[in-house]
Protein backbone atom coordinates (compact mmCIF):
# COMPACT_ATOMS: atom_id res chain seq x y z
CA UNK A 1 0.00 0.00 0.00
CA UNK A 2 1.09 3.60 -0.55
CA UNK A 3 1.56 6.10 2.25
CA UNK A 4 -1.89 7.49 1.51
CA UNK A 5 -3.46 4.11 2.31
CA UNK A 6 -1.28 3.15 5.27
CA UNK A 7 -2.74 0.45 7.48
CA UNK A 8 -3.15 0.30 10.39
CA UNK A 9 -3.87 4.00 10.82
CA UNK A 10 -1.37 5.66 13.16
CA UNK A 11 -3.10 9.07 13.05
CA UNK A 12 -6.87 9.59 12.79
CA UNK A 13 -8.44 12.99 12.20
CA UNK A 14 -12.14 13.34 13.04
CA UNK A 15 -13.96 16.45 11.86
CA UNK A 16 -16.85 17.88 13.86
CA UNK A 17 -19.38 20.65 13.33
CA UNK A 18 -20.86 19.92 16.78
CA UNK A 19 -23.94 18.27 15.25
CA UNK A 20 -25.49 14.84 15.97
CA UNK A 21 -23.93 13.69 12.68
CA UNK A 22 -20.50 14.48 14.11
CA UNK A 23 -21.24 12.57 17.31
CA UNK A 24 -22.23 9.49 15.24
CA UNK A 25 -19.02 9.71 13.25
CA UNK A 26 -16.97 10.16 16.42
CA UNK A 27 -18.22 6.76 17.58
CA UNK A 28 -16.49 5.17 14.58
CA UNK A 29 -13.34 7.17 15.25
CA UNK A 30 -13.41 5.75 18.77
CA UNK A 31 -13.82 2.21 17.42
CA UNK A 32 -10.82 2.55 15.10
CA UNK A 33 -8.81 4.18 17.89
CA UNK A 34 -9.54 1.28 20.25
CA UNK A 35 -8.69 -1.30 17.60
CA UNK A 36 -5.39 0.19 16.53
CA UNK A 37 -4.24 2.47 19.34
CA UNK A 38 -4.02 5.36 16.92
CA UNK A 39 -3.41 8.97 17.89
CA UNK A 40 -6.82 10.58 17.33
CA UNK A 41 -7.25 14.32 16.84
CA UNK A 42 -10.47 16.31 16.47
CA UNK A 43 -10.93 19.31 14.20
CA UNK A 44 -13.58 22.03 14.24
CA UNK A 45 -13.71 24.61 11.46
CA UNK A 46 -14.82 28.04 12.67
CA UNK A 47 -15.11 30.30 9.71
CA UNK A 48 -17.15 33.38 8.95
CA UNK A 49 -17.08 34.89 5.48
CA UNK A 50 -17.34 38.65 5.89
CA UNK A 51 -20.12 40.17 3.78
CA UNK A 52 -18.68 42.44 1.07
CA UNK A 53 -20.80 45.35 2.29
CA UNK A 54 -19.22 45.35 5.78
CA UNK A 55 -17.20 48.45 6.57
CA UNK A 56 -13.68 48.15 7.96
CA UNK A 57 -15.03 49.11 11.36
CA UNK A 58 -17.71 46.41 11.25
CA UNK A 59 -15.22 43.81 10.10
CA UNK A 60 -12.78 44.74 12.86
CA UNK A 61 -15.53 44.56 15.49
CA UNK A 62 -16.68 41.13 14.33
CA UNK A 63 -13.12 39.78 14.25
CA UNK A 64 -12.60 40.94 17.81
CA UNK A 65 -15.79 39.20 18.92
CA UNK A 66 -14.74 35.98 17.18
CA UNK A 67 -11.36 36.17 18.87
CA UNK A 68 -13.01 36.56 22.28
CA UNK A 69 -15.28 33.56 21.66
CA UNK A 70 -12.46 31.25 20.59
CA UNK A 71 -11.76 29.95 24.10
CA UNK A 72 -15.43 29.09 24.56
CA UNK A 73 -15.38 27.21 21.24
CA UNK A 74 -12.23 25.33 22.23
CA UNK A 75 -13.78 24.28 25.53
CA UNK A 76 -17.01 23.13 23.87
CA UNK A 77 -15.21 21.09 21.20
CA UNK A 78 -12.93 19.50 23.81
CA UNK A 79 -15.90 18.55 26.00
CA UNK A 80 -17.88 17.05 23.13
CA UNK A 81 -14.89 15.15 21.76
CA UNK A 82 -13.91 13.76 25.17
CA UNK A 83 -17.43 12.52 25.80
CA UNK A 84 -17.75 10.89 22.37
CA UNK A 85 -14.29 9.29 22.32
CA UNK A 86 -13.96 8.34 25.98
CA UNK A 87 -10.67 10.19 26.36
CA UNK A 88 -9.33 13.71 25.89
CA UNK A 89 -7.96 14.05 22.34
CA UNK A 90 -5.89 16.81 20.84
CA UNK A 91 -8.29 19.35 19.35
CA UNK A 92 -7.88 21.96 16.66
CA UNK A 93 -9.97 25.07 16.01
CA UNK A 94 -9.16 26.19 12.48
CA UNK A 95 -10.23 29.53 11.03
CA UNK A 96 -10.74 28.27 7.47
CA UNK A 97 -13.68 26.97 5.41
CA UNK A 98 -14.47 23.37 6.51
CA UNK A 99 -13.10 21.50 3.49
CA UNK A 100 -9.89 23.54 3.42
CA UNK A 101 -9.47 23.16 7.18
CA UNK A 102 -9.91 19.37 7.08
CA UNK A 103 -7.57 18.76 4.15
CA UNK A 104 -4.88 21.15 5.41
CA UNK A 105 -4.91 19.72 8.95
CA UNK A 106 -4.86 16.17 7.60
CA UNK A 107 -1.76 17.02 5.57
CA UNK A 108 -0.09 18.79 8.52
CA UNK A 109 -0.70 15.78 10.80
CA UNK A 110 0.03 13.26 8.03
CA UNK A 111 -3.26 11.60 9.02
CA UNK A 112 -3.83 8.06 7.79
CA UNK A 113 -7.62 8.24 8.08
CA UNK A 114 -10.22 11.02 8.06
CA UNK A 115 -13.59 10.49 9.77
CA UNK A 116 -16.53 12.73 8.95
CA UNK A 117 -20.28 12.69 9.62
CA UNK A 118 -22.81 13.42 6.91
CA UNK A 119 -26.13 15.20 7.24
CA UNK A 120 -29.34 13.62 6.01
CA UNK A 121 -30.96 15.13 2.94
CA UNK A 122 -34.50 14.75 1.71
CA UNK A 123 -35.84 14.73 -1.80
CA UNK A 124 -36.59 12.38 -4.66
CA UNK A 125 -33.27 10.55 -4.38
CA UNK A 126 -32.99 10.83 -0.57
CA UNK A 127 -29.31 11.68 -0.83
CA UNK A 128 -27.44 11.75 2.46
CA UNK A 129 -24.12 13.14 1.33
CA UNK A 130 -23.66 16.82 2.22
CA UNK A 131 -21.41 19.23 0.36
CA UNK A 132 -18.58 19.24 2.93
CA UNK A 133 -18.37 15.44 3.15
CA UNK A 134 -18.67 15.07 -0.62
CA UNK A 135 -15.86 17.52 -1.28
CA UNK A 136 -13.62 15.94 1.35
CA UNK A 137 -14.20 12.53 -0.25
CA UNK A 138 -13.53 13.97 -3.68
CA UNK A 139 -10.40 15.94 -2.79
CA UNK A 140 -8.69 13.87 -0.09
CA UNK A 141 -5.55 11.96 -1.03
CA UNK A 142 -6.00 9.63 1.97
CA UNK A 143 -8.77 7.27 3.13
CA UNK A 144 -11.99 8.90 4.34
CA UNK A 145 -14.67 7.24 6.49
CA UNK A 146 -18.04 8.90 5.93
CA UNK A 147 -20.78 8.04 8.43
CA UNK A 148 -24.36 8.75 7.36
CA UNK A 149 -27.47 9.58 9.41
CA UNK A 150 -28.81 6.01 9.35
CA UNK A 151 -25.65 4.37 10.65
CA UNK A 152 -26.23 2.13 13.65
CA UNK A 153 -24.12 1.60 16.71
CA UNK A 154 -20.43 1.51 15.68
CA UNK A 155 -19.43 -2.08 14.93
CA UNK A 156 -17.18 -4.06 12.60
CA UNK A 157 -18.79 -7.48 12.36
CA UNK A 158 -19.39 -7.61 8.60
CA UNK A 159 -17.31 -5.65 6.07
CA UNK A 160 -18.33 -5.42 2.42
CA UNK A 161 -15.59 -4.90 -0.16
CA UNK A 162 -16.85 -4.38 -3.74
CA UNK A 163 -13.84 -5.16 -5.91
CA UNK A 164 -12.76 -5.05 -9.49
CA UNK A 165 -9.62 -6.85 -10.58
CA UNK A 166 -7.63 -3.71 -11.37
CA UNK A 167 -5.09 -1.95 -9.14
CA UNK A 168 -7.74 0.19 -7.45
CA UNK A 169 -9.66 -2.92 -6.46
CA UNK A 170 -6.49 -4.48 -5.11
CA UNK A 171 -5.80 -1.45 -2.91
CA UNK A 172 -9.23 -1.43 -1.32
CA UNK A 173 -9.22 -5.21 -0.96
CA UNK A 174 -5.87 -5.01 0.85
CA UNK A 175 -7.26 -2.43 3.26
CA UNK A 176 -10.49 -4.38 3.80
CA UNK A 177 -8.70 -7.67 4.46
CA UNK A 178 -6.34 -6.04 6.96
CA UNK A 179 -9.25 -4.32 8.68
CA UNK A 180 -11.28 -7.55 8.88
CA UNK A 181 -8.26 -9.37 10.29
CA UNK A 182 -7.69 -6.72 12.97
CA UNK A 183 -11.37 -6.52 13.97
CA UNK A 184 -12.13 -10.25 13.71
CA UNK A 185 -14.84 -9.34 11.20
CA UNK A 186 -16.37 -11.38 8.38
CA UNK A 187 -15.28 -10.03 5.01
CA UNK A 188 -17.70 -10.12 2.09
CA UNK A 189 -15.95 -9.82 -1.30
CA UNK A 190 -18.39 -8.66 -3.95
CA UNK A 191 -17.51 -8.93 -7.62
CA UNK A 192 -18.91 -5.63 -8.77
CA UNK A 193 -16.38 -4.45 -11.33
CA UNK A 194 -17.13 -1.25 -13.23
CA UNK A 195 -19.34 -2.13 -16.18
CA UNK A 196 -19.24 -5.79 -15.18
CA UNK A 197 -15.71 -6.20 -16.59
CA UNK A 198 -12.66 -7.82 -15.02
CA UNK A 199 -9.24 -6.42 -15.93
CA UNK A 200 -6.84 -9.34 -15.75
CA UNK A 201 -6.51 -11.92 -13.00
CA UNK A 202 -7.44 -11.25 -9.38
CA UNK A 203 -4.12 -10.55 -7.54
CA UNK A 204 -5.44 -12.16 -4.34
CA UNK A 205 -5.92 -15.90 -3.98
CA UNK A 206 -8.42 -17.52 -1.65
CA UNK A 207 -5.58 -19.09 0.34
CA UNK A 208 -3.97 -15.71 1.00
CA UNK A 209 -7.20 -14.24 2.32
CA UNK A 210 -8.12 -17.33 4.37
CA UNK A 211 -4.86 -17.01 6.29
CA UNK A 212 -5.91 -13.57 7.48
CA UNK A 213 -9.67 -13.48 8.00
CA UNK A 214 -12.99 -15.27 7.56
CA UNK A 215 -14.56 -14.34 4.23
CA UNK A 216 -17.19 -15.17 1.66
CA UNK A 217 -17.58 -14.27 -2.00
CA UNK A 218 -20.64 -12.88 -3.73
CA UNK A 219 -21.23 -12.77 -7.49
CA UNK A 220 -23.82 -10.36 -8.81
CA UNK A 221 -24.42 -9.83 -12.52
CA UNK A 222 -26.60 -6.74 -12.09
CA UNK A 223 -25.40 -3.14 -12.33
CA UNK A 224 -22.46 -2.52 -9.93
CA UNK A 225 -24.27 0.19 -7.95
CA UNK A 226 -27.39 -1.95 -7.50
CA UNK A 227 -25.33 -4.98 -6.47
CA UNK A 228 -23.30 -3.00 -3.93
CA UNK A 229 -26.33 -1.40 -2.30
CA UNK A 230 -28.24 -4.69 -2.27
CA UNK A 231 -25.33 -6.65 -0.79
CA UNK A 232 -24.82 -4.05 1.93
CA UNK A 233 -28.52 -4.11 2.81
CA UNK A 234 -29.17 -7.86 2.63
CA UNK A 235 -25.96 -8.86 4.39
CA UNK A 236 -26.26 -6.11 7.01
CA UNK A 237 -22.81 -4.72 6.33
CA UNK A 238 -21.43 -2.52 9.12
CA UNK A 239 -19.01 -0.91 6.67
CA UNK A 240 -18.36 -0.67 2.93
CA UNK A 241 -14.73 -0.39 1.87
CA UNK A 242 -14.33 0.85 -1.69
CA UNK A 243 -11.37 1.72 -3.83
CA UNK A 244 -11.85 4.81 -5.93
CA UNK A 245 -9.67 5.91 -8.78
CA UNK A 246 -9.76 9.64 -9.40
CA UNK A 247 -9.12 11.18 -12.78
CA UNK A 248 -8.21 14.85 -13.26
CA UNK A 249 -10.47 17.17 -15.23
CA UNK A 250 -10.85 20.89 -15.85
CA UNK A 251 -13.33 21.05 -12.94
CA UNK A 252 -11.18 19.02 -10.53
CA UNK A 253 -10.87 15.35 -9.59
CA UNK A 254 -13.66 13.06 -10.72
CA UNK A 255 -14.68 9.61 -9.52
CA UNK A 256 -16.20 6.89 -11.65
CA UNK A 257 -19.99 6.91 -11.97
CA UNK A 258 -20.20 3.82 -9.75
CA UNK A 259 -18.24 5.48 -6.94
CA UNK A 260 -20.26 8.69 -7.22
CA UNK A 261 -23.60 6.90 -6.95
CA UNK A 262 -22.59 4.62 -4.10
CA UNK A 263 -21.26 7.67 -2.23
CA UNK A 264 -24.62 9.35 -2.60
CA UNK A 265 -26.99 6.44 -2.04
CA UNK A 266 -25.53 4.05 0.52
CA UNK A 267 -26.92 4.00 4.05
CA UNK A 268 -23.95 2.07 5.45
CA UNK A 269 -20.79 3.89 6.56
CA UNK A 270 -18.41 4.17 3.62
CA UNK A 271 -14.62 3.95 3.79
CA UNK A 272 -13.22 5.26 0.54
CA UNK A 273 -9.61 4.37 -0.32
CA UNK A 274 -8.50 6.71 -3.09
CA UNK A 275 -5.88 6.28 -5.77
CA UNK A 276 -5.09 9.34 -7.80
CA UNK A 277 -4.11 9.04 -11.44
CA UNK A 278 -0.98 11.10 -12.10
Helix content: 25-40%
Summed up, the domain count is 2
DSSP, total strands: 10
Shape estimate: elongated
**Unreliable stretches covering 5 or more consecutive residues:** 122-129
Look at the helices and sheets and give the structural class.
Answer: alpha/beta
CATH architecture of the largest domain: 3-Layer(aba) Sandwich
Number of helices: 8
Rounded mean pLDDT score: 82
| Major β-sheet profile | 10 strands, mixed
CATH H-level superfamily of the largest domain: HUPs
Order of helices and strands: EHEHEHEHEEHEHEHEHE
- Strand order within the widest sheet? 3-2-1-4-5-10-9-6-7-8
N-to-C terminal Cα separation, in Å?
A: 16 Å
CATH class of the largest domain: Alpha Beta
Fraction in beta strands: 15-25%
Kindly describe this structure.
The longest helix is centred in the N-terminal third of the chain and has 30 residues, at 56-85. Helix content is 40%, strand content 21%. The protein has a 10-stranded mixed sheet with strand order 3-2-1-4-5-10-9-6-7-8, with helices on both faces. The protein is of the alpha/beta class and 278 residues long. β6 (158-163), α5 and β7 (186-191) form a beta-alpha-beta unit. The chain has 8 helices and 10 strands. The radius of gyration is 20 Å and the shape is elongated. The model is unreliable at 122-129 (pLDDT under 50). It has 2 domains: 3-147, Rossmann fold; 158-276, HUPs (Rossmann fold, 3-Layer(aba) Sandwich), CATH 3.40.50.620. The chain has helices at residues 20-36, 56-85, 98-109, 131-139, 167-183, 206-210, 224-234, 257-265; strands at 11-15, 39-45, 90-94, 113-117, 144-147, 158-163, 186-191, 214-219, 239-246, 270-276. α1 crosses α2 (56-85), α3 runs parallel beside α4 and α7 runs parallel beside α8 (257-265).
Amino acid sequence: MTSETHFPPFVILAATDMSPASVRAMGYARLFDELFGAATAVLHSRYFDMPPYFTQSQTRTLLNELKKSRKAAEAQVAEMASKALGFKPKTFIVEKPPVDAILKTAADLDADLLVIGTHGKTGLKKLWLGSVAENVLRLSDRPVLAVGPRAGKPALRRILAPVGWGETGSQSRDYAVALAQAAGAHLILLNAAEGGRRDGACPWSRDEIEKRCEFSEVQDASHPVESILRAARERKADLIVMGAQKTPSFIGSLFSSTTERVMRLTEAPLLLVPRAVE
